[in-house]
Amino acid sequence: MKILVTGAGGFVGQRVVRKLIELGTITVDGVEAPVTTVYACDLFGDAVQGLADEFDAVEALAGDLTDPAMVAKIKDIAPDIILHLAAVVSSAAEADFDLGMKVNVDALRSLIDCCRAQPKPPVLVFTSSIAVFSCEGNAGIDESCTPMPLSSYGMEKVVGEYLVRDASRKGFVRGRTIRFPTIAVRPGKPNSAASSFASGIIREPLAGQEAILPVSRSIRLHLGSPDMAVGSVVHAISLKQDVLGDRGAITLPGLSVSVEEMIGGLRAIAGDDVAALVKDQPDAKIEAIVATWPGSITTPEAEALGFKPDAHFDDLITAYKKAYA
């Protein structure tokens, strides 16, 4: 199996590539097949070259997915599976509409055009986000709730979901969309996502640094671990098309945790002094975005398909501390 991973230089993307190499085989339509080559694709070459240097089965692809030269390369590769993780995150998409549309919509259209050139439709896993939903006052919702985004990023993800669904209907791809919860705890530096604080309030204090909390402590988040995200991408590949039917998107299970509970978990694991490094500094713009996200989502349909949530938020802190702190 030839597998193309876009956004492979990102945190989740790198972990997906490593997981595919670790597994060595992948199941598609009930048939197990070897992973022959993983094409790690990212706009930034340095981000994926390291993976290619580390693993013989990985080839680095650097460039813009909307560039005709990159499109031609992907058509020549004719991947059996495409895992589309590349995206411009929420705050950046809100600040730069054109950039958000190019990366979050136009790049997906380019990938679908590549798929149309193939004699057999590839499996396409598109990673969307719970940012497609909106609610009043951070309320809880059900997975069947109709998407109604209140951000450019959420809108772009909804457009992507419909593109994948229609491409599947037309037989261009064997598509499946999974909506990620907020992923925490991420290593590295803060990014421009509105949800960046969800990792920062754990990551920075564990490193002995202050963390800025831009939202109220009563805000609840639908959270998932990096391992859950990677496992869900791999599991999505294995779903049979007849089981998926005309399902538009699958909202992944997650943990409903308040910011106060997150800090409480940090306090229980690392102590009062570490938890005190979280400093409240309200940011009206971020609060306005996050307050429209659901504080909890019930996902019986996703769980019936085999997707599983993490057991407890404290496990996310412990896993991060063991790996990075």
CATH superfamily of the largest domain: NAD(P)-binding Rossmann-like Domain
Radius of gyration: 19 Å
Give me the count of strands: 16
- Please tell me the overall pLDDT: 95
Oligomerization: single chain
Short description:
The chain is an alpha/beta fold and 325 residues long.
Describe the structure in your own words.
The protein has 2 domains: 2-181 and 225-251, NAD(P)-binding Rossmann-like Domain (Rossmann fold, 3-Layer(aba) Sandwich); 197-221 and 255-296 and 311-323, UDP-galactose 4-epimerase, domain 1. The strands form 5 sheets. A 7-stranded parallel β-sheet has the order 5-4-1-6-7-9-13, with helices on both faces. It has a 3-stranded mixed β-sheet with strand order 10-12-14. A two-stranded antiparallel ribbon has the order 2-3. It is α/β, with parallel strands linked by helices. It is 44% helix and 21% strand. The protein is globular. The two termini are 36 Å apart. It has helices spanning 11-23, 45-54, 68-77, 90-95, 97-116, 152-169, 197-206, 226-238, 241-244, 259-270, 272-275, 284-290, 300-304, 313-323; strands at residues 2-6, 25-28, 31-34, 37-42, 58-62, 81-84, 123-129, 140-142, 174-180, 182-183, 211-213, 220-224, 250-251, 255-258, 278-280, 296-298.
Short key terms for the protein model shown above:
single chain; 325 residues; alpha/beta; Rossmann fold; UDP-galactose 4-epimerase, domain 1; 2 domains; seven-stranded parallel β-sheet; three-stranded mixed β-sheet; 14 helices
Helices, strands, pairings?
Blueprint: E1 2-6, H1 11-23, E2 25-28, E3 31-34, E4 37-42, H2 45-54, E5 58-62, H3 68-77, E6 81-84, H4 90-95, H5 97-116, E7 123-129, E8 140-142, H6 152-169, E9 174-180, E10 182-183, H7 197-206, E11 211-213, E12 220-224, H8 226-238, H9 241-244, E13 250-251, E14 255-258, H10 259-270, H11 272-275, E15 278-280, H12 284-290, E16 296-298, H13 300-304, H14 313-323
Parallel strand pairs: 1-4, 1-6, 4-5, 6-7, 7-9, 8-16, 9-13, 10-12, 11-15
Antiparallel strand pairs: 2-3, 12-14
Helix pairs in contact: 1-8, 3-5, 5-6, 7-10, 10-14
